[in-house]
Amino acid sequence: MKISLDAGALCAKANLHFGNYTFTQSLIDSIQKYDQNNEYYTYSFCQKPNWLDVRDKFHYKVLRPSVLWLSTRVSIEEIQFKKDIFLALNQAIPISTKSKVISFSHGLSFYFYPQFYPDSHYVLNDQLDPMIKKSNYIVVPSRRVKKEMEKLFPGYSRIKILNYGVPVDMINYLPAKKRKYFLFVSMNHGIKNIEFLIKTFKLFRQNKKFSDYKFFLVGNLEKFEDEKNGIYAFPKVTRNEVRKLYSEATAYLTASFYESFNFPVLEALSQNCPVIGLDGSIIPEFKDLVNMAYDPTNFLNLMFTVSQNKGTKFERSEILKKFSWKKYVAKLVELY
Is the dihedral angle over the CA atoms 154, 137, 43, 46 positive or is it negative? Predict the structure, then answer.
C-alpha cells in the first residue's frame, strides 16, 4: 500500500522540538524499522532533517509554498498522486484527498483551556468536526483523550488508543549517580503551569536540609532563570545532554493543567528518573509509575519524600516493554 503522512511538525524551530516533533520523529523512525511492506511518502515544507535516513519504500517530499500548505498544497499532491492511506499526524486534514484518512489527536488542551491558546484555539476547534467526519479512525495517545473525545462526540466509535513508545534516543541508559537537582523539560507555555513549579521549588529550598538543591529548566525558559534561588535555564542542549540530565536528576517535576500524554514523563522514567506530578499532568497509564499529587501541599511533601530516596518504585525494563514503538507501529498497520 502507498501511505502518505503529514510531517510538517518537523519544521519546528530547534528550541521547540517537543511534543509533536518528538512524536513525528519517533513514528517515522519506527515505521522505517518495523514496516517493510508498505511504501511511505512523507510531506513536509522544509529540508530533510539530518537524522532522517531515506531508504527504499520511504520518500521525503518537500512541498511548497508553506502558505496554506496542508489545505491547498498537500491537497493538490493527494489529488495528483493518489495514495491508499493519509496519516494526519497533527489532527488537520487536507481539504481534498482520495485516501483513507487516519487522524491523530494529541489532546484537547486547546478545548478545555482556550485561555492558553489565544492565537490557535479557534483553528484547532474548527478542525475537530472535519476530523470526525472524514477520518476512518482517530488515534489518541491515552485513555484520557479517548474518554474526552467520546464525551464530545457521543456515538463515535472509531477511536483507537495507541500509547506512544519511549523516544528512540532514550532507549539506551547509562547508570548515573543522582545529583541534587530537580528537572523540567518543555517549552514556555501557559498550559505547563511553570509558575507553580518555581513557587513550590522555592518553598522546598527554604528547608535548610535541602537548601543546596537546584532546579534545571530545559527549553526556551530563560525568563524563569533565578540563580540566586538555584533555578537555571538550559535553552540549548543536545538530546544526549538531556538524557544525562534525566539520569542524574533527583526527580522530574510536572504540574501541567492538562496533558494528553506527557512525553518528558516517559523520557524520565526511561532514564530511571522518578517523576512527581500534579494529577492533571499525569495520564491514567502513568499513575502507577509516578508520585502523583493532588494539591500543592501534597506536591511539596512528595519532593521531600523522593529526595530521601523514597516514593513510588518502578522497573525500567517494564517501561520499555509497555511503551514500545514496535507495538505502536504494529497496531497502526492493523488499521490500514
Answer: positive
| Strand 58-62 with 85-88, pairing | unpaired
**Per-residue pLDDT, 15:** 63
Provide the residue type at 244 as one letter: K
List, for residues 134-188, the tens digit of each pLDDT value.
999 999 999 999 999 999 999 999 999 999 999 988 999 988 999 999 999 999 9
Q: Give the whole-angstrom CA distance, residue 323 versus residue 161.
A: 12
The ranges assigned to domains in the chain are 2-166+323-334, 168-320
Query: Average pLDDT of 257-269?
Result: 96
Q: What are phi and psi of 190, to 5 degrees?
A: -55, -35
The class of domain 168-320 in CATH terms is alpha beta
Q: How far is 86 from 78, CA to CA, in rounded Å?
A: 9
Q: What whole-number distance in Å separates Cα of residue 135 and Cα of residue 187?
A: 30
Residue for cell digits 486547546? Answer: 110
Largest CA distance in the chain: 68
Residue 220: is it exposed, middle or buried by C-beta count within 10 angstroms (0-12/13-18/19+)? Answer: middle
Same fold, 2-166+323-334 and 168-320: yes
The percentage of the chain sitting over the pLDDT mark of 70, rounded to a whole number, equals: 99
CATH fold of 2-166+323-334: Rossmann fold (3.40.50)
Pick left, alpha or beta for residue 290 (phi over 0 → left; psi -120 to 50 → alpha; otherwise beta). beta
Report the relative pairing of strands 291-293 and 275-278 from DSSP bridges: parallel
Partner residues linked to 100 by β-bridges: 85
Which tens digits make up the pLDDT trace of 84-130?
999 999 888 888 899 999 999 999 999 999 999 998 878 888 889 88
